[in-house]
Amino acid sequence: MSVPIRRPRRRGGPYAWIVWGGVAFFLVNLLALILSVVVDSFATSWFGDWLPRGFTMRWYAEAWDEFGLGDVLRVTLVVALAVVLVALALGVPAAYALARRTFPGKRLVLLLLLLPVLLPPITYGIPLATVLYKFQLAGSMAGVIAANLVPALPFVVLVMTPFIEQIDTTIESAARMCGAGTRQVFLRVLVPLLVPGILAAGILVLVRTVAMFELTFLVAGPDSQTLVVALFSAAFTPGIRAAQAIDAMAVVYTMLSAALLAVALMFVNPTQIVAQVKETPVD
Amino acid sequence: MTTGLRHRLAERGVDRVLLLLVPAVLTLVLLFLYPMLYGVGLSLQPRTGGLLDNYRAFFADPYQSGTIGKTMRLALPAALINVGASVPIAYRLRGRFRGRRLLTAILVLPVTLGTVLVADGLLRYLGPKGWFNRVLMAIGLVDEPVRLIYNYWGVLFSLVITGFPFAFLLVLSYMSGIDPTLERAAATLGAGPWERVRRITLPLLAPGLATTFVLAFVLAFSVFPSANLVGEPANETRVMAIAAYDAAFEKYDYSMASTVAVLMGVFELVVIALVLLWRGRLYTGSTGGKGA
């Protein structure tokens, strides 16, 4: 049995109170902001009072029918999953090559990978949309998937490269010594070791694709809208639809991405994205 | 290929492993590089006039060239606020204590809100009849509602709410990467808390802060939905993204749209390059926040 050791309380000081006060102020306002959308999405009508007159569920039903929310959700999931799968299939091998080799022109390849992450999506989104329209790919699901690959693929490569660098090359050599071919080394040695990294990258791409507005907005047609785009179009043409129905849709969107984030946090420790944390041992 | 040549190439790192790069690079060349170059080419072929006429027209028209300043006036403060506010909070959260994970999760949660919900919420909450103005009037701070939406402030708030979680996560991550023993060593040598922050933590954190600033700036720079929904898209918050979109999908002038898009990329890269140049002069070592 260990004797509980009394640890000195962290001394706050006035400075700490300012910081926590600021955080509290931010969070209270944020909560009120979210609540005002949620309350409105259940409101019968709400004009100029502290609270609406009555509550109803009908806006959710209306949003579901009128916006074809079922279809939109299906498109969103298909697009996001397709982007994740393709980005992983192309990105992981590329990350392997970048992690294991230095070769002439490597900096150029890295630049090609960094630019899509750094440039604003509108910058390459508009020319990309023009090109996709020229090849009649725009407005289709394939076009939306292709456009979303542009930021997703470099993201996978950039996340996976340090992951692969951490894996000891002797493990691969040992597998080869035992007679494994390249394909076997990849599938039976590397991939199992990389599962945590692949999951992390995949989930982050999924979250980002669901949230990606600009690119999808620029290339999507009426049948290939994802939820964000449908939501923006609804919000941007006010008057046609009840504000409460838009709120209901926004709440549905937030629930979806909150669920995705919760799954992501199960696999990724958010503080370890860029650095291995050296935590003080618990005494 | 002869074995000799293959050997020499392999010594420089060129062998069959590089074939694994081909699909990814090819995809990016097709979907990113080609459209980019096509866009640059398109911007040089105006509907009327010579090679650089689009660019000339853009800078000659204050309604168009003013978008550069408007974008910067939103993106720079938003990025500064997001990084600046993250530092003290992450500093308080760097150690281990009960509730750390929960607090981190709460601060990261706004990531899931999405710009439309934030915009919607801002319109309701900060609107003239929203709770915020009601509270202000109830306690007697103001006599009539403060105007915080459909202008610059609404967009800035939205950029802070959606951008802060990203900046905070990165700063927290860099902060956790700093070896805690360094600070204890400084304390042993007699450095006070403020001195430790100024002489140990901040210098080690600076490269990471520069990186975070770049990413926060990139996020804020492409502001589009919120500038439309909570801003004044015809005037005060007519950012470059709106100008590009208008040219492409309202006027169907793809050449001009490409011009604005190219300029947008150029101005963003200039800011990034300046920050990275400054960052290059900072210390990046193994014990640092791994900002390298």
From TrEMBL, chain A:
InterPro entries per record: MetI-like, MetI-like_sf
Pfam families: BPD_transp_1
Membrane topology recorded in Swiss-Prot or TrEMBL: Multi-pass membrane protein
UniProt superkingdom: Bacteria
Keywords: Cell inner membrane, Cell membrane, Membrane, Transmembrane, Transmembrane helix, Transport
Domain ABC transmembrane type-1: 73-264
Ranges that cross the membrane: 15-39, 72-96, 108-129, 141-164, 185-207, 250-268
Family that this chain belongs to: Belongs to the binding-protein-dependent transport system permease family.
Protein name: Spermidine/putrescine ABC transporter permease
Automatic annotation (TrEMBL), chain B:
Residue ranges occupied by any ABC transmembrane type-1 domain in the UniProt entry: 68-275
Keyword line: Cell membrane, Membrane, Transmembrane, Transmembrane helix, Transport
Pfam family, one: BPD_transp_1
Stretches that traverse the bilayer: 17-37, 74-91, 103-127, 152-174, 204-224, 254-278
Location within or outside the cell: Cell membrane
Gene3D superfamilies: MetI-like (1.10.3720.10)
Top-level taxon of the source organism: Bacteria
UniProt xrefs under PROSITE patterns: ABC_TM1
InterPro entries: MetI-like, MetI-like_sf
Keyword Membrane: yes
Primary location recorded for the protein, binned into one broad class: membrane
Stated family: Belongs to the binding-protein-dependent transport system permease family. CysTW subfamily.
Record-given protein name: ABC transporter permease
Organism from which the protein derives: Microbispora corallina
